[in-house]
Input
Amino acid sequence: MDELTSVFIQEGREQLQTMETGLLELEQNPDDRDNINGIFRAAHTIKGASGVIECGFIESFMHKVENVLDRLRNNEISVSADLTGLLLRCCDHLGLLMDVLENGSKEPEDEAKTNGNALQSELAAYTSNAGSPTPPGQVIEAESEVHASGGGVVDTDSWHISVRFGPDVLRGGMDPLSFLHFLASLGEIVALETIPDAIPSAAEMDPESCYLGFEIRLQTRSSKADIERVFDFCRDDCELHILPPNSKVSEYQKLIKELPEDDMRLGEILVRCGALTQTELEEGLLSQKQADQPVSPQNQDASPLQQPLGEILVDHKVVRKEVVDAAVSKQTQISEKKAVEARLIRVQADKLDQLIDLVGELVIAGASTNLLATRSRQSDLIESTSILTRLVENIRDSALQLRMVQIGETFNRFNRVVRDVSREIGKEIDLVITGAETELDKTVVEKIGDPLMHLVRNSMDHGIEAADIREEKGKPRRGRVELKAYHDSGSIVIEVIDDGGGLPRNKILAKAIDRGLVQPGQSLSDQEIINLIWEPGFSTAEQVTNLSGRGVGMDVVRRNIQSLRGNCEVSSTEGEGTTFTIRLPLTLAIIDGFLVGVGKSAYVIPLDMVIECIELKENTADRDFLNLRGEVLPFVRLREMFEMSGTRPPRENIVVVQYAGQKAGIVVDHLMGEFQTVIKPLSSIFRHLRGIGGSTILGSGEVALILDVHALIQRNADLGAREHNFSRPDTTDFNA
Amino acid sequence: MGEVVRSSAKPPAAIEAAGSAPQQYLTFTLGGEMFAVAILNVKEILEYGAVTEIPMMPNFIRGVINLRGAVVPVIDLSCRFGGKPTVEGRRTCIVIIEINDGEITQDIGVIVDAVSEVLEIATGEIEPPPSFGTRIRTDFISGMGKVNGKFVIMLDVTKVLSVEEIATLSQVGDSSASEAP
Output
């Protein structure tokens, strides 16, 4: 696939996203003109770009879509649920077509074709009925944004387009021919003259430069803006003049003056392509010698796109100042927007990954240098390495920042999902999104989509009740699903909240007994019952719907999240709703760690979780909790837990950690201080290992293990509960 | 960590394509017995040292080492065969073996008593594995090679170092060691 196509696909998908978001918005606010225009622009850009890369099937499809949108924009048809539904399906189809293009196929599959044809005929229904059908080729008055402003009107019904491509057009990957092809899709090109005047002598000619210009007469019903948009891709590189049909002679004069070619020669060309008659030309050239002709005010709503023209018009008091100002400020806005876009650089994701890898290596190498410097006891060296370390830390942070993306984009996808699913299952459900601007690692964002999808669908399908039942229960008819994201002590928390019926404990328990997950007589706390939904093969839906309920869901969700070093919890109040809470690490690559030692081994505790370090007093030898300024602090002894040989040192330390609002202590031998930790994943051999989240390489070249504090403490809590065989003291503690 | 030998790492898939031509094998000793693995599976051989133990793992998983920035697990082959843990001596080595498990290629280190030599063993010189008597699970053995009148046990590394199986075993090891329901 060539570069142009891949750029098209990438940008096309973005436009598609814009279109889809716009359409969803349209359902809520059918009268939002800006929004409709936005959707139209997006559709048009896709069509235009597909024309440039000569992808016929997308272009023709989008042409139909655009026609409908155009009528919508002109108030010829009104917004209805059917229409937006149809347009959304068109978006889906377009996404499909882009897949086809991406896979390098020339034509979509038959099934897709049939689907596309069906959609096109549905679209046709909107273009043909209602309003006054306009035969193609005739200019709709409302659409031509620029009207002639009096004077001798040239007798022609076609647009006149003068374009001079800049020398760099070919180098930029644009083919002037494809623009012309695309132009032809707007209407009929009546006449076309190539202007080869700029071509230098063969010796001086650069084969990579473009020297051509064209004079085109186009019969179309499109507006000036539409025609301009055809040339969007090379707008900066070419000189473009567009004259609407029936322009006055002086407009043509101006055109002739502005174009670089000799006036007479150009005049002849214009005559040849039928824009002007010989008499008109002569008349024009004559009057050109006279001073600026006064033009009679006829049409005030002209929106001149070329500023000089605007000034002239103001000079002659043809157009009111405000109108021009408005037009100018619009222009400025557009160029500012372009400037913002230009500040973004598209970078291949693997280049970024490579950078992060290198920064990781740099951090490890820096740690080793630091170690050597400390050992050498040379204060100069230590100072210079500490400066180096600080810089490396900054580089690390900025490098990781590059990979951070807002979660909003992922969340917004759910607008569509919620809309479609709620229609499908006949429930009324609103989606509320909060914290869309929360940033997290790109890798995490990519992988969180599927589990979230599952949870949202589950909430809609099983959680939210049907509207009638809701009313009976005294709840608002419309159900509510909320997606929420926020940062909390070094991790990101994503919540899926619904205000549905909550998890039915009795049903879950009955099912679990049925499946043999629980023994009939066993007494379980509410939280334990709820946690049964994470067991493999568990599903309480009485009927299997095509949304969820195949019982493959929740354990897969949990596994996916755990593979991102995260975890998920569920809490539910029967009758009021369910909250799924997903906790994920901010990044998968490098973290700030706190290095501790037990025996000869070193372990890393994520620094964000560490609150303080205290010395373990002797008198706690036979119990595993202590009094931390009046609070009970349970702790785990790493040496015992990891069954390590060797004796305890006389002085042990406790690292107090906090996770998900809970505090706990970890007893270790030594504290070794902060350590920038480059996370190296452990082999999949260790995937069942709980309590260890990964590994890292120390300055000395040795491997240290990273503790997964949450799993470690939870494991201990489970063990404690089992060993003493009493129900857990507080089941909300440390439960996933 | 000194590097003793380093062979060019080729994908193990090449082995099947090799046909009947004599293939090269790396031979090593373990508990007095001679073993061989196809050379194409062998990535490099390292001097034993600096193994970081992983807690809560069965004893045949010795730990992990830093292989030029990558963290690679190390298996005690003797334990894996049901014997005693290897006691490290002067000639103890870690052989890094590349495992192609479906789509993922993984490096795993194995501890051996001593690396001997690289030998060519013709296909005709390879006998099928005996159904019992080697004290090693038969599915671990791909054949018995005849070298200088002695038998060499040729290992099927994809079975011996099956990631799937080791992961399952480590889970069992973990729960039996600490959870004891």
Observations:
- Confidence is low (pLDDT under 50) at residues 130-153, 288-310, 542-551, 726-736 of chain A.
- Residues 107 and 113 of chain A are 9 Å apart (CA to CA).
- Chain A has 22 helices and 21 strands.
- The first helix of chain A runs from residue 3 to 28.
